[in-house]
Amino acid sequence: MILKKSYWAKWLENNRRRGWTFLLCLVMALFCGPLYLMVVLTGLQNNYANDSVYNAAQAAESLRELIQSRITDVIGFSFIHVLFAAFFAILFAVQGFCWLYSRRKTDLYFSVPESLKKRYVLICGNGILVYSFSTLTALLLDWIIGAAFHGMTGIMAAQSLLAWFVEQLAFIAMYQVALVAVMLTGNILTALLGCAVFFSYELAVRFLIDELKTMFFASYCSADARQWMQKSYLTPFAGFWDLLSHIWYRDEGRLCSYKNAGGWGRVVGVECILLLACAAVAGLFAFWLYRRRKTESYEHAIAFAPLKGILEAAMAVPFGIAVGMIISRVAANKGLFLFGGCIVGVLVGHVVIRLIYRCELKTILDGKLAGIFSIAAAVLILAGFQFDWAGYDRWIPEKGNIAAVSVTMEDDYTAFGYYQGESFGSDDIMYEAFDDRMLRRMNSTEEKTIDAAIRMQKRWQDAGMPGSFREEEAQTEISAEEINPKEEKRYVRWVVCYTMESGRKVYRRFLADSNENHSEIDTVMRDASYQRERYQLNDPDFLANVGKMKVSYYNGVTESFYTGDKQTLLKTLQEEMKKYDYSLISSELPNGRLSFAMADPEEKDASMMTTWTYPVYGSYLALNDLLVQDGAEVYAHAGHQSADDIESIKIDYYYYDDDSEEENSDSFFEPGEISDQEIQVTLSDPEDIEKMLDAIYPVELSWISGEEFGVYNWDYRIDVTVVPKESSYSNPDEQVRILKSQEPSLLAERIRQAAVRD
Q1: Which domain, by its residues, includes 592?
Q2: Are 37 and 151 in contact (CB under 8 A)?
Q3: Is residue 311 part of a domain?
Q4: DSSP-assigned letters across all residues of 234-258
Q5: Of the candidates 607, 629, 651, which is a domain's last residue?
Q6: Residues 287-345: pLDDT tens digits?
Q7: Are the CB atoms for 335 and 143 separated by under 8 Å?
Q8: Rounded distance, CA 758 to CA 755, Å?
Q9: How far apart are alpha carbons 477 and 4 in whole angstroms?
Q10: Is residue 6 part of a domain?
Q11: Are residues 43 and 98 in the same domain?
Q12: Does 316 fall in a domain?
């Protein structure tokens, strides 16, 4: 008798009633884990045993790496884990309390002399124990199978155990959120819909807000979106996915070899605390609803009548805003179509929601007050964004409240090579986008750099924020290239991250005219923190590995390998690059480039090279001296120095006449002067070639000449190829560009002569 009344007996009884869910969870865990792993690893072994391409040693090594990779795919970073946890969180919540949706079962359960608290804890705890047992059993079997195939390591086991623990936290949080949906609803259909809404609502709203900011705020940038979109407070499966990405390398499945282990631990710890907080809040709220739920709630789609209007508005408002945004973008109109589409979307959302709630057409017109409130709320939200009532675009932080600043060019395509991150030179190569790295790590505390960032943003605001729909003459956001008037403005899009004294990070994007902000750009580019994080060559690991690299110098014509002391060369380049700023870029073209290439450790034949390239200027005196001492040909001007070195210069110009004066304003010809045609010109006379020398510049060097600033006006109307008299290359033709400022009249004259007239 005592046993029957014990908690253990009641748990066993409840488990028998839910036996099929326990069996389903265990079978699916085994199928997705050990059974799948066994099949995959057996297939790998058989494939390599029958493969005659590799020798025995190569096959064994490759097989071992593949086995470890497949093991980590199963026990590590996989979206299957997220879906698995979400599926069973919903299943256990709905199945465990489905008796609330039946008159007969409700009367039966509430007639039993048992406290509501004990019954709730029993059912809820049963789901957690079943899930934990099933997933832990599958994990242990994964270990055994992995060890049998000689692919399991201690660090992989430890890491998978951490991932399993995180999975349990995520499951508990998702389970509690699903229980909230169950307690709020009166039938299984609305319960499932409620789970779907609760699991996606926060992400959907965050995405909608991001789209609104992108659409209406000229200074909003994607870096800000990445920061706050990744956070999840009410959507546990998103937090679980983010945690897995921190624990396991994406795609690789290997342990994160972060040098800053403390920082990594803090990130994981904070995410776990957020999951626990979500589980606690949702769990307490679900229990509170359970205690106050009426027995006759099964008669209604929503168990709590006062919440119906709130839930309707919460779903109809974002739906209406999304509809308005979609219609306005299709119609390219942010006025009538935006607000009209929004109102229509809210009304449609209300109709659909009430049909789900009531399942009767006659109830559609009910709840007029909630509908009017929803329309008003949606319109006010849109108006707030469109007219920037909060002053988002006008905001600039007070200097005294800024602890540090990070600045980068969004249009900076002179990347000097990919930035290799924390795993420099190892087998676990991970490349970082330089702009993300700059915003994350620059953190300059220099007062003059902070002042420069503030002045650039303020100057853009005072100019009417060119490049955005808020500009008086423009209606939509346009690119920096599109708003650059010829020879007048040199707009570059900058992104700044203000780190406030409170630790909060605030991101802003703005366009800065390089001429007007000459001194400010120089200040930013000369900042020690900017240079440290912008250029890979300043990485201590780069200096430590430079001896393993191939270093070459290219002068626009020939390339030679550096044979001297590479560390001395690199240290000299580091000092010279401190001079690299807008003043240098706008006044001088590089006379060559230095390239550092290191073999990819994952490529056994060393055929893949990671390359970093840096410009060499004539003002880099110490560096030029080192290159000359090593035997390199260093020219004052990149490319051919004499017409005697050139056989001919080939020019290709395609003319398209659409009878539009605007389209042909940058052409050699007047509209209607000639018909559509491709014009080819070859200059072989030494005098003609001599006239072209100052205008031609190697294409390969133009990419590192500061093109992001638009300083040099290249003539993109024509393709120019230099054919040298002698070349060591298999393809001797050299692609060059033409500087419009140095372009001789000879060029236009010869193109006109070669044109075929109508």
Answers
A1: 541-629
A2: no
A3: no
A4: S-HHHHHHHHHHHHB-TTT-PBP--
A5: 629
A6: 999 888 887 776 677 878 788 888 888 999 999 999 999 998 888 777 788 899 999 99
A7: no
A8: 10
A9: 71
A10: no
A11: yes
A12: no
